[in-house]
Amino acid sequence: MESIYFTSEERKQITLLYKRLFRLSGDTLQKDDCRKLKDCLIKAYPKGEIPRNCFGMNSVIKSLQTSIIIAEEIGMKRASVLGIMLHEPVQYGMLQLNEIEESFGSDVAGIIRGLVRINELYAKSPTIESENFRNLLLSFAEDMRVILIMIADRVNLMRQIKDAEDDEARQRISYESAYLYAPLAHKLGLYKLKSELEDLSLKYTEKEVYYHIKEKLNATKAARDKYIAAFIAPIQQKLEEVGLKFHMKGRTKSIHSIYQKMKKQKCPFEGVYDLFAIRIILDSQLEKEKQECWQVYSIITDMYMPNPKRLRDWLSVPKSNGYESLHTTVMGPEGKWVEVQIRTERMDDIAERGFAAHWRYKGVKGESGLDEWLTNIREALEHADNDLEVMDQFKLELYEDEVFVFTPKGDLYKLAKGATVLDFAFSIHTKLGCKCIGAKVNGKNVQLRQTLNSGDQVEIMTSNSQTPKRDWLNIVTTSKARSKIRQALKEIEARQTEFAKETIERKFKNRKLEYDEAIMMRLIKKLGYKTVTDFYQDIAIEKLDVNCILDKFTELKKKETESREDITYRSAENYSIQQPVDDKLFKDDVLVIDQNLKGLDFKLAKCCNPIYGDDVFGFVTITGGIKIHREDCPNAREMKARFGYRIVKARWAGKSQGRQYPINLRIVGHDDIGIVTNITSIINKETGIQLRSININSNDGLFSGVLTVMVDDTAKLEALIRKLRTVKGVKQIDRG
Predict the structure, then answer these.
(1) Which CATH number fits domain 218-353: 1.10.3470.10, 3.30.460.10, 3.30.1490.20, 3.40.50.2000?
(2) 7 contact partners, CB below 8 Å, separation of at least 6
(3) For 251-310, what is each residue's pLDDT tens digit?
(4) Which of 87, 303, 528, 705 could form a disulfide with 115 if both were Cys (CB 3.0 to 4.6 A apart)?
(5) CA–CA distance, 83 with 144 (Å, rounded to integer)
């Protein structure tokens, strides 16, 4: 590698770092790995085309430093080290991934692929505080080693930028460390690295706070150590006397956690009384753990006064993450509060190592799929020693049913796998979805139905002339988008129907035609439309010509008028007809009376004229016969109230062929010429219905009267009433 890319100081640094890394991981390298790695790096860095980062850090040195953290502090060796050293040359096109796979194997190539993909994510300027971004990161990594490498790389970066001139970049990196990388490290049980990331983040973002707490801790260290020794001496003596096996240690809180306490309790440094905790760790048999922990608690609280509000019993009910311990805060010498944590070796292992230890001791899985998966990873790291090929089995499948998609501004949206551009548009906003005509995905124009993948950057394109289409329902896959499209289509349909109605009304006025609702309904049916809405929709989209509809309307009206030319039209005033009705006897419809009694004699009550299909009941008369009334008979309420003991249940059980009943219909309307003719015409056209009589009186332009028709069931009666209500001039018609 030529000196164009390295200063003389950097060349010395590379030599030292390489020797240290080789000591840590050399035993896991394969034959010729070092030679092949050197050849690749010489090929990749001939002209210094791989840029330094924004802090001016040399790519090779940064990779060596990260590799040392991975090998020394996490315990990962060959594949991870080679992946770190070679991923930037692949990312910048200096080396090809297939070359790496051929020389070093698929596991190294897989790690590089994951690191390159994640670096591409960062190029999209994501909002890293988003929980979605953390999930996306994990789904992109596939191999968990990639996440561990990222954490190590971030720890290294945070260590190296303490003197960086670009403070804005350092602030950004520090916020990312606190929001993204520290929580990931915590989930993986990397508590030391997690605390370091949090402390360094505080150091760079709130320098005065960090150094204030650090100076206070340094100033009080000697006094703190002396106090701890005095506090534990009598406890140690008593525990030894009762024969318990144990060891004790003091633990000072991290600067970051002290600051969090200060903010939470709204107090100065001096007000944080549990700056340190005394931990008593027992070597107990599993069946004696709780008993011995409470024994220690009893001994301590006999010596020092406990604060009852500060007792935390995670022995009886462990935390959801498996944490078990007994915490108490007691008043020590000089009136100072001291936190004491009592636990066993097994509990301490779980507390220090997180889910992995819990898995090992208890076999209990984590709270969620992620925790369970991370447990497996940690377990593999702890027990695989130098052979980390076992890591290949761990591929992240948690997010296989989800995709994470960026907006141009870096906001991140989570969608179901298979989601399209149109789904994404509606997930942002309904208006955006309704106006969507396509999108740019990673800079390329695509159609509405384009399926999205995790990491895609999507810019929705819109047009003010665009409106939702019914076939969009076949494009979207999410229920949210589907419901929004249906809602939008209904609104469009309602507007179009209203527009079509107004258009027709305007055309009628222009031609000075009188609009007849009944004729229009018959025309719509004649044209083959099942619903009036469909008819108006076709008018709105100009599938039907309004002028043509008016011509057909005029033609139909003329045809119906001509067919009635021989009919004498007259006023409804004092109109009365009586038509003979064939009174031949039919067998009565079958009624089931009371429970299951058939064949009983009954009569139909004249007060309400029940017919087949009506809800009915029976009333036992004084003579012993049964009269059948409708449930809504005007006399029903009084009969049931006064003579409830004479009411029997009744229901229709069979229909007699040809049986008809006389029904009275009360009718009210305007006395227009031809009104009676129109009414009688409709009745006469109905099959199975006979007109027995009409009695109508007219007064001041209004008429009212009674029609008596013969009908065989309620279905036909209700259909007739609906048709009579459409007759122009009829205002009200009800069954008597």
Answers:
(1) 3.30.460.10
(2) none
(3) 778 899 888 888 887 888 887 766 778 999 999 998 999 999 999 999 999 999 888 878
(4) 87
(5) 13
Q: E strand or H helix at 406, and its extent? A: strand 402-406
Helix spans in 182-279 (H): 182-187, 191-205, 207-241, 255-265
- Return residue ranges of the chain for CATH 3.30.70.260: 575-579+660-735
CATH 3.30.460.10 boundaries in the chain: 218-353
Q: From CA 241, how far away is CA 92, in angstroms rounded?
A: 67
Rounded distance between C-alpha atoms, residue 260 and residue 253, angstroms: 11
The dihedral through the CA atoms of 685, 686, 687, 692 has a sign that is: negative
Q: Do residues 691 and 579 make contact, with C-beta atoms less than 8 angstroms apart?
A: yes
The predicted-structure confidence for 191-233, as pLDDT tens digits, reads as follows 778 889 999 999 999 999 999 999 988 888 888 888 888 899 9
CA distances from 205 to 120, 122, 217, 532, 646 (A): 26, 21, 20, 68, 91
Any idea which of 253-257, 392-396, 475-479, 524-528 has the lowest mean pLDDT? 392-396
- pLDDT exceeds cutoff 70 at 128: no
The pair of structure tokens assigned to 430 is 């309904």
- Note the helical H segments in 266-342: 289-303
Q: Classify domain 575-579+660-735 by CATH number.
A: 3.30.70.260
Nearest to 416 by CA among 403, 426, 407: 403
pLDDT digits over 414-441, tens only? 888 889 999 999 988 889 999 999 999 8
Query: Are the beta carbons of 318 and 324 closer than 8 angstroms?
Result: yes
* Mean pLDDT, residues 716-736 taken together: 84
Q: Considering the entire predicted model, what is its pTM?
A: 0.52
Please, which contacts does 358-362 make with residues 24 or more away whose CB atoms are closer than 8 Å? 358/321, 358/322, 362/322
- Contact between 371 and 206 under an 8 Å Cβ cutoff? The reply is no
Residues of the chain with CATH 3.10.20.30: 402-477
Give the residue from 451, 429, 454 showing the smallest Cα distance to 439: 451
Q: How far apart are CA 500 and CA 516, in angstroms?
A: 16
Query: Rounded to the nearest 10 degrees, what angle do helices 78-91 and 144-160 cross at?
Result: 70
CATH superfamily of 402-477: Beta-grasp domain (3.10.20.30)
Whole-number Å distance between alpha carbons of 17 and 515: 95
With CA atoms as reference, report the closest residue to 155 among 66, 75, 67.
Answer: 66
C-beta neighbour count of 582 within 10 angstroms? 7
Integer Cα distance of 99 and 44 in angstroms: 12
